[in-house]
Each structure stands twice: as structure tokens, then as C-alpha cells.
């Protein structure tokens, strides 16, 4: 019998629809997998005790011949940045330990309505601040390819859960690459939608002008299926785009079977030379471009002169917005509260925030508060926003010449746990190629394109498209994925080593 946990979400959905497999069977198989391997991986912070009941309800509705959605009964992992009514929502922080939300995030509510079965909440860097998931207050997540290495961040838990076959689908959030960079280092697929294309309501805010919720999966089609569920206008989110969106799953199917690469103009940024990347990462990127060129794509060198300032601008804008957003965790309105006998409100607030926030969060709050302070606002935050505008113009000029932009998703493969934890600047540079998309609000996708020969670890390629052209990414991503699947005889994850809980 086929291992249920090895099925793609699309294949599992087909078997559920035909009643070859029940949702209870699928959910139990993934819960068993979590029990077997998550002690080593630590992808989950909380495993739902209601998952089997939710799955049984889907089976009941299917037996009653109710009209169910295309992914009804498929299990789902949820990044802990998204609030849920039936599981704690901590955002990876001690200050929110045990917090129960009175409402579901919109994307969670839509997932439940579509019949997806929540398995649990996944680990993350505290308040989504980090590129390694080492900044979680509840301990690091480990990369299923090598348990001594990081799974990326901030959404390393969601990526690791999918890579370890603990869940076929996961929700993540991407502020500067937190979906795409973990996908790169775990051999999975991650999509950052157009800003405003997916509701942020109920996503615990890091930087409101940058945050975006999106899918983490094992195939491009699976991402399209999940994206179809969560996309669309939400009256609760003032930044939500009221546009009607096409089916992203249909776009992926078109890419996999069509001739979409022929005549496609793919931009390569000349300001990102191979020397900026690990040799195996650069080689995989060039190999991917060669495959696309062989299918009729045209590789075009473009200039994006302000991309080199993206990291600096981002690490002024993000801390400033984070400083404002995290002010609500003040021992009065949200989160933990420490008693300070005889102390003032300010004493209680100071003691609570000191105990509840980790070092990376404190670092960014201090930086952001300074950047917003009187006398420095124009010099720092204001200047960073001007750079943001220049980066947006770089994208506009580039997309006047090409259909998509391609880059390596990250400069290196997964580094070892602890290797960069005390070097924040080095950690920040992991987002070198992903940050520009968040500053401009354009969509991006990362998909696996090989293993670096120097360490045998996964490498991803990133495609960026104009705002609102998410479907274009699915067509292009699925077309390239099909070439690699044919070459490898399956998914890249099939080549990963075994985990303790059983053969992969």
C-alpha cells in the first residue's frame, strides 16, 4: 500500500474524493508520522487534539454526498504566527505562551471552510524575526535533510513539517523571505503572494507593510491548490486587494502540460554575480536557466541597481514597524505579566518585556525605536522608504523588458545550527535575494532545482513576477518543475536521507 504521507496534496485529494482513502486515515497517518519523527525535527509547537474529529466530520459529509472543495480532508500545518481558536498562538514567543485567540485568522477560517484538517501549529523564529528558526523561545527546528542544520526561517517549522512528510500542506508568512528561504534549504516549494492578495487578518504582525501569508508545499500544484483556498478579498484587512483572482492550481496545471517556457523572457540581475553565492547554489541556478533556454526561453540580463541597498533599507523599515506593532505586548493588553511587588506600571511593563522577549526581538525593537525617534526619523526610516521607492522602480523597469526575474533563492544551502546565531549581520544577508520582493509587494516563488555537490543539500530557484501576476509564477514554476521531475524520476525530496521514524 502506498504510504499516505508520501502522497502529494493533489494526489491525496483525488484519493479522498474517490473514497479510496478516508480523511481519518490520512490524518491518522500524518499524526503517526509526527509522533515518530518530530521529536528529532521539532517542526510542531502544538499538535491538535481535534484533528481526527475534524477529519471524521469531513468523511461524514462526503458520505452524505455534500459538495466539498477540491482539498477537503487533506491535513494542514499552520505557522504559529496565525491565530487559532482551538490551539495556542504564541508566535514563537515566551510572552504569548499559552495564549488562546477568540477568533481564527482569515486564512485559517478559509482553510477550515474548505475542509482542510489542521494538524497543529508549527515552530518559528520569535515574532518571525530570523532566518533559521533558532530564535524560537521553544527551541530550534532542525532540517530533515541534516538534523544538525537549520531549516530556514522564520517559517522553518512549516517547511520542515512538509519536508519530513509530517504534513502535505502548510501555511507560512513571508516578511523578507520567511516562506521562500526555508523552501530553498529544505527542498520544498514556497510562495509569497502579491501583497494584499491574501488576508493578513489574524496574522500576528511583524512589519505590516511587508508581511504576507502564503503556502508551503512539496509541489507547485499543491501550492496552487492551497493558494486558491486562502486568496481573495477580506473586509477585515484594510490592505486586501478587492480583485478577483484566477485559479492558481489551473495555472500550475497549464504550466506542467503546456509550452509556457517557449518565448518566455527571463531576467537575470547583473548586480547579483555568481561570486555572491555558494558555488553549488550558483551552478544549480545556471543549470536551471540552461534548461529553460533549451525549452525556448530567452535569458535577458537586466539591471536593478538599487537591489544592493535592499537589505539595509529593510532592516530599518522592518524594525521600525516591529517596534510599533510589538508595543501592544505591554503586560496590560496582551501576553504574560510579571508581578513586581511595589512596582509601578512602568516597572511591571519593563520586567515583563525583558522576560518575555528574546534577544533578537529586543535588538530589533531597540533599532526600530531609534530609527523612529525625533531627529533620526528622516535620516533613517524616511531614507529607507525612499530607497524602497527606488527598488519598486527597478522592478517596474525590469518588467517592462522581461516576463519574470530569476535569482537563486538564497546565497547558501542550510548552514549548521549555531553557526550564525551570534552574527546577526551574517544572518540578515540570507535574505539578500528575497527582500526586494517584499519591499515592492510583488509575488515570488521558490522551488527546488537540485543538490549542491559540496554538501548534498537542497538548492532552490526564485522567480518574481509583477504585482497581481501570481498565476504567471505558477505556470513558469510548474513548467520548470516538470523538467526536473522527469530528470530525477520524482521529487527532490525522494532523494533525502532517512529520518528516525522510518524510510522517506
UniProtKB/TrEMBL annotation:
It catalyses: L-glutamyl-tRNA(Gln) + L-glutamine + ATP + H2O = L-glutaminyl-tRNA(Gln) + L-glutamate + ADP + phosphate + H(+). InterPro entries: Amidase, Amidase_CS, Amidase_dom, AS_sf, GatA. Keywords: ATP-binding, Ligase, Nucleotide-binding, Protein biosynthesis. Residues 25-473 form the Amidase domain. Coiled coil: none annotated. The active site is at residues 79, 154, 178. GO terms for cellular component: glutamyl-tRNA(Gln) amidotransferase complex. Its EC number is 6.3.5.7. Belongs to the amidase family. GatA subfamily. Allows the formation of correctly charged Gln-tRNA(Gln) through the transamidation of misacylated Glu-tRNA(Gln) in organisms which lack glutaminyl-tRNA synthetase. The reaction takes place in the presence of glutamine and ATP through an activated gamma-phospho-Glu-tRNA(Gln). This is Glutamyl-tRNA(Gln) amidotransferase subunit A. It comes from Microbacterium stercoris.
